[in-house]
Write the structure tokens for this entry.
Amino acid sequence: MESKNKMDAIISLCKRRGFVFQGSEIYGGLAGVYDFGPRGVELLNNIKQSWWKANVYNKENYFGLDSGMFKHSRTWEASGHVGGFSDPLAECRKCNTRIRVDKELGSIGITADEKMSEQKINDLFNQNRDKIKCSTCGEKNFSQVKSFNLLVKSNLGDFTSDGREPVYLPGEACQGIYLNYKNIVNSMSPKIPFGISQIGKAFRNEISPRNFLFRTREFEQADTQYFIKPNENKKAYEAIKKDRFNWYLSLGIQENKLRLKQHDNLVFYAKDAWDIEYEFPSGFDEVEGIHDRTDYDLTQHQKFSGVDLNYVDQETGQKYVPWILETSMGLGRVFLAVLCDAYHEDEMDGETRVVLKLKPELAPILCAVSPLLKNKPELVAKAREIYSSLKKEFGRVMWDDNSNIGKRYRRQDEIGTPFCITIDFETLEGDTKDTVTVRMRDDGLQKRISISELISFLKM
Ligand code: ATP
């Protein structure tokens, strides 16, 4: 399927089947904000749970955190966001459409990024202006490039409206980890190396939010900061890159759709930086950053707060500011990657169908339960009994007695339900008494399974 069509088909499925809605739609929509509907929130939660398992439960010496969104305004000065968290912006002189210049240059094959100086990016833009058209009016008449700060301000606690020391919304979720590093060291006494993981919201005044969930103004990040001894970064960094890449495979994403890509430019304090990229219908793009950040973050917070953030090594008595290896993943982007990977159109029983081949652990609904006929009370009663016991066990179970069985299957295929359970007359009597039909989503094959084995079958 052609790339634009595939993304359009996914966006349309998301709306039609209750995965994702445009934010504030009844008011005409709010650019760069999306809401997750009943199916979407389940898929999102299942992705989060998988990440939490991999980054807290299945690891030793990793700690979970949920820090407040608002932080002292100096946090963002220390982190460098107030001074330097900006993207290069140019404006169409005819229709005022704003473009993010590094991304526009990237789309014509010229490497540029937000870390370049304003002068350098202006030079590159000037050399290539004739190749960049305004997507709204088609003109090639843009202003000079300016840096535009992405932090979103709030007026929390500002009763005079003088705007001094504004409290920002988080530009990235991980700052809460640095602010709580000392609390966690004091309360948990972790032995170095140790990790702190958290999922949190981030807000950025993105110049041109686009590509559905890929670039939004409000999004969620899942971050781990791994605290290590100074100079012990190399081996651990390689292990983390591998571990994170494997996590995407564990979601069922095809390996040939994933790659690790090293950054061309590094910020001055970083030792190394790689992205994990997924091949979206529009091409490979970043879903997660993996950064070898030295002691920059804690040293900055130590300097700005005046609080000693040294770690005292109980074994050697040494005192030092730990170095940090960071992984930072955008949940919206992973959600989109999972959907793009699972989306298929194929033929079944002589009909074209849309099917989401999601791993059962990720599917919004694990199984749908149906009586073969909804006007036969004995079938309905048995089906209700099975539905209740599965619902109690798994939660993600749906009662579905609408229309005929073929239509039910198509509807469940579209939302990625791996198993459809049908209670028919054979369930009630004869050799097959107390068995049901389980229909598999991917190949359409059907199995007869005894009711007493259903729970363990679905747990496989
Ligand atoms: P980009 O270069 O695409 O703007 P970034 O390198 O600035 O991204 P980071 O600051 O490293 O991104 O953030 C970590 C992760 O957060 C990214 O890998 C991405 O998955 C996610 N992310 C960043 N910006 C956005 C956004 N505007 N919308 C959705 N997810 C985002």
Notes: The pocket of adenosine-5'-triphosphate is lined by residues 172, 204, 206, 215-216, 219, 221, 286-289, 328-330, 332-333 (CB under 6 Å). The radius of gyration is 26 Å.
